[in-house]
Write a structure and sequence with these properties.
Number of strands: 0
Shape: rod-shaped
Amino acid sequence: MSETVEQKYMEVIMKEENALVFARFSKLVNNLFSEKSEAQEEILALKSQVNTLQKSISEYKKEIVILNERLKKQEFLEKSKEIQKESVKIVANKAKKSADSVEIKKTITELIQEIDACIALLNEE
């Protein structure tokens, strides 16, 4: 089987074209691998950022819990002060209405004990 000049020419052209196609394909594959590597690096960076943000969120949640506890204590203190004011008013009214100093002393002692109990509760924290 003898090949004609045209067949040989076609073979050479096909080989060159195949080489060009292979080179383009190889370049595309290399680009894809490069993009994949870059994407993996970006994913790692994003994961690191997510972890950092999760830690920050956790710390903020802890701060919120602490602040809520402080707020509750402050509200308790304010209510305690209101109770103390009302207690003083009640004692004053009873003192005016009653001439019996023993009863007044007993009431004052009871109120002082209640106030001491409130202060003890506050000191436990």
